[in-house]
Amino acid sequence: MIKIGICGLGTVGQSSLEHIIKFKNEIRSNVNVDFEVSHVADLAIESKKLTNHNIIATNNAMDLVKDPEISIIIELIGGTTAALEIITESLKNKKHVITANKALIAEHGNEIFKLARESNSFFGFEASVAGAIPIVKVLTQSMSNEKIFSISGIINGTCNYVLDQMSNKKINFETALKDAQKLGYAEADPSFDIGGNDAAHKISILSSLAYKIGLPYKETYIEGIKNITPMDIKFADELGYTIKHIGVTRELDKLIECRVHPTLVPKNNILSQVHNVMNAILVKGERFGTSMFYGHGAGGDATASAIVANLVEAINFSQEIDKSNLKISHSIGTLNRKIKNIEQVESSFYLRIHAKDVPGVMAEITNILANEKISIEAVSQHEPEETDSLIPIVMITNSVPGLCINKAIDKIQLLKNVDDKVNSIRVLKLNEK
Amino acid sequence: MIKIGICGLGTVGQSSLEHIIKFKNEIRSNVNVDFEVSHVADLAIESKKLTNHNIIATNNAMDLVKDPEISIIIELIGGTTAALEIITESLKNKKHVITANKALIAEHGNEIFKLARESNSFFGFEASVAGAIPIVKVLTQSMSNEKIFSISGIINGTCNYVLDQMSNKKINFETALKDAQKLGYAEADPSFDIGGNDAAHKISILSSLAYKIGLPYKETYIEGIKNITPMDIKFADELGYTIKHIGVTRELDKLIECRVHPTLVPKNNILSQVHNVMNAILVKGERFGTSMFYGHGAGGDATASAIVANLVEAINFSQEIDKSNLKISHSIGTLNRKIKNIEQVESSFYLRIHAKDVPGVMAEITNILANEKISIEAVSQHEPEETDSLIPIVMITNSVPGLCINKAIDKIQLLKNVDDKVNSIRVLKLNEK
Predict the structure, then answer these.
(1) Domains of chain A
(2) Which residues pair with B296 in a beta bridge?
(3) Looking at beta carbons, which residues of chain B come within 8 Å of A317?
(4) Overall pTM > 0.90
């Protein structure tokens, strides 16, 4: 009998417990030994309803970590303090660990994977990236036998919902965010999602898995969505693009890109068709070509589904049926690759410039771009929003390093007849690797 | 040293060999033992160029099957005669087997899985359904711990390409098919793809995996795309749908549906955004919700990528690192479920009826539908294509069994003022499980 302890009975913890009980038969058919959730811990354990009275409940998660009877710890507390102690102590105690804690892995992954390696323990974190999408399994197993060119993912449901609503309802960022909060798709303090940090945690994990590097979170470029305006969405739409918040990791000439930011996605790229709070991850490889995985990125049941998939693996690991999980902790950090500074990262750019309607201003702008060796692939000049106001000029450039664009923007912003706030957004090209 | 034999050096065989050689380091990092392709067999082996002169080449695949040194056989001959012998004899000889042969599994799967079970051998067939999409792994591992409501897949690239071209270029079936043949997306004799048999093989395999039933190929309802007209595509588009060729398997009240046919897919369902020859499989589950997996369904490199993913599993299976593959052969056929006759299968229907522009004809049609308890959710009457010709009337019904629709169509076709060819197409509803 395998005994399992769940630390943290929030939405995901409760749903995991419910899943394990409701689908006991299905899970049992995937393992060769009986199992049960024997212990649960939650700081507010008194307020939790437990229908199964055989489960031992405590408000101290470390009780579970120290209990020699428990062989699998499911950490669903979140955060990077208590959770770190629970996970590191569990691994030191040779327990198998499952977590949904992306922040913890992104920020302390190198230490955690080292411990998992040393203790020969199972460490499962499928739920930490894109909830029910089995991207960890797919990347480390199905796709790990060739060169991965790039991963581009819609990995924050809040950002996707807000941008999708801005696009569909032609509303501004603040209104869309309020709608999202009303529906429970954004937190009361949404800064972590909207600011891009959550997506940055996830893309760091994917980058480590794809390229076998240590967790690159500290070097990940992070930009959120709060500067996206309805005007950008409208102009992008006219040029054939949808604005999405995308996490990208890519290897080019042994240098790694790892970044999250708003991105213009061509409408004929399937990522542009990912709506509401859904997540999707597009992977390009040398042999399999282009694949995309779509599903629920959050929510109790979807996340619990990934936790339970890991649970089956952990049980089979403990029974010597499937030891393949070890490969992950043994491979992360084995390669040493430089992470590109965002100014080195090349892409096409969307530029929105507001200028006075006077002769010569377009010539001034295009001269500055030409001097930085930036060519213009598409340009459109729009009617001013009000009479006598500045005229919006929108451009798509060729693929150039961020530094070139920044230099050009600095110069354009100094022009007498141009507003000093030029907006730039990176563009995902359909044919780039 | 694990020795591998490849039977069949067509596109996929050549590409698999190339993949194994080119990405030897990546593959080697996923296994704990050295390996090599030691033997290849092809009926026309003389015409094949082998750059590695250490590989033993023969035109008799059974030489490989009988060779005690070879522990893994990769069958890429195709067909259901020689391939059946190769696979069954390999399993009897306790070799591990990998194949891309969907026809063989759909038609002889029960026998093959029984042999794999009895010989405790690895049997890998990831490449048999949707090429590079790791749907076999995902269904049998990540998603096997809960109730799968349904699987709906675009699993034949030829059909998808032809329908997509008909839609984009407003051309008819014959022209689109000729274009597909020119580009190599359709065979010289395309009947197997266009007629739905290939998709039926694949959906049968997915149905077995999801519902643990024996291969339901013989009871699978098969309908191809040759009766779809540009008019249907246009009318569907106006009603908010795209016509796709979809394979569906679904469990409802312990009865299984297994069918392939043209389907109206709502434009806000992500399946409708799968273009060209791409494949995509949408899975609905009780806990994970809706997931979708998209990628290349065919082509040498994409298929080889799945073969190589299986190869790593087979090597790890042989080294006792990952025995989870056994679960598949042990689970298929363990449940006994009736497959619904297509006339029992409920769905919404699209009906296209051509009628004379005379008073009362609409009343006659709607009375017939009402008598069969079919209600109309949307209706549109179009201008006749030429003066005095029949008027097309298009309807979307509520969800009813196929039998009701067939009865109604029989009666409508007998009406004096109605053309005797009523076209019906099933509709995939967004909110159905």
Answers:
(1) 2-132+300-328 (3.40.50.720), 135-295 (3.30.360.10), 346-427 (3.30.70.260)
(2) B278
(3) none
(4) yes
